[in-house]
Amino acid sequence: LTGYVFVLGGFDYKYADGVAPSTLDSVERFSLHENKWNPCSGMNEGRAFAGHCPIGEQFIYAFGGFHDYEVLSTIEKYDSVLDNWVTLYVKLPVGLAKLGIVATDIQRHVAIVGGMNPSFHRQKIVYLFDLKTFKFTTQSEMKTAKTFNGAVHFYDGMIYAIGGNDKDGCERFDTYANKWENLTSYADIIQ
User: Fold this and answer.
1) In the prediction, which pLDDT does 106 show?
2) What pTM does this model have?
3) Where are the alpha helices (DSSP H) in the chain?
């Protein structure tokens, strides 16, 4: 996936009174080399505020999100070589939107962090999803329930959950010790 930026789904707001937004299944890809956009095959299900994660140079996984105002538990996998989407037979243990997603340990696992459940409550939950077995393992919960827009990162065995609805709150998860710890806030450096 090097050399491309992907835009997946979202809401199509018409800005008309009484008109609900529709959820998009569309996917576009921007080529950094050609400096242009191209359409890709659409997802099987429209989704907004989903968690997306590239795996290697070929795949993108889409987890949960909203379809209209329903919180999804479905997972889709995009193959950039074949330009097609497959809906996996396995689902998230609970429907989640606004969740944090990041690939870990040589991209064998995907961490699913926090999010919003079908009752629209923020979550502290953390799952590791094994890409070989398609099984979820529950990990220690975050200290603070959070929703995210992509502020989850992995480095050297640690998952970093930065901000989210918690604004300047920072936590770090040790994947070996299965333990969260609070980090120093970055509020002091933001003007």
Assistant:
1) 74
2) 0.89
3) none
